[in-house]
Amino acid sequence: MRAADVRAGAFAMPRTSPSYPAGPYRYVDREVLAITYRTDAARLRRLLPEPLAPRGAEARLLFTRMPDSTGFGDYALVAQVIPAWLPDGDAAGYVHAMHVNAHAANSGGRELWGFPQKLARPALRVERDTLLGTLDVGPVRVATGSIGFKHRAADPEAALDAVAGVGVTLKIIPHVDGRPRICELVRFRFGELRCKGAWRGPAALSLSPHALAPLAELPVEQVLDAVHVVFDGTLEPGEVIHDYLAEAPAR
Q1: Full-model pTM
Q2: pLDDT tens digit at each of 251 positions of the chain
């Protein structure tokens, strides 16, 4: 294989049979239950990396089902997001934790955008009159969220901002000697958005401690808001907004 051929196909691992195809990555009928809650402000500040700044003492848990996603197929995820201010003063959601149930999505999300993904068993489903989101890690139920199913219509623009607004991740890729090769904040967003439905209703959320899925480090003090949204959107390429290695002293 010529060096030019190596470079031309070097968009994912492994080179001979990538875990996922090249983008763009379009999601159709992406369904999200987003529950915003008040949490411990001191813990939140400790977990949010500088130069990001918290927007109050809130966190958000997103239970997501994606039945039709380019290259990744049909899968689900649960993400814990911290509303934050970016260095330029814009608002975004910092993705603190994420769990998915598909290898291709796990590989692509980590390698491309730096999503902090781990494999687990997230789910989002309708149980009679309730939309129920769950996250199981092994035999342990780590998160349970619920909302009354389509109780009242919600404003589409505000609902999309809660589930598909600007996000930011901490992307870390190690060097072969174990030191960080990449350590940066990445901004991402959805484009070509089309809201197919948005609803609000009574909601509840519970988190349980787990050594390797510590979502409960941001405990639920009070549920503040919940929204159920179905939409189409394209996950766009990310943008590096802060490079931690560029500011590090030379060794």
Answers
A1: 0.95
A2: 899 999 988 889 998 899 999 999 999 999 999 999 999 999 999 999 999 999 999 999 999 999 999 999 999 999 999 999 999 999 999 999 999 999 999 999 999 999 999 999 999 999 999 999 999 999 999 999 999 999 999 999 999 999 999 999 999 999 999 999 999 999 999 999 999 999 999 999 999 999 999 999 999 999 999 999 999 999 999 999 999 999 766 55
Per the CB < 8 A criterion, the answer to whether 33 and 226 are in contact is yes
Work out the number of other CB atoms within 10 angstroms of the CB of residue 174. 11
Give the three-state DSSP class for 73: strand
Q: Between the CA of residue 185 and those of 41, 51, 86, 214, what are the distances in Å?
A: 22, 9, 10, 21
Distance separating alpha carbons of residues 69 and 233, to the nearest angstrom: 10
Superfamily (CATH H level) for 23-243 = Acetoacetate decarboxylase-like (2.40.400.10)
Whether a cis peptide bond, with omega within 30° of 0, leads into 83 is no
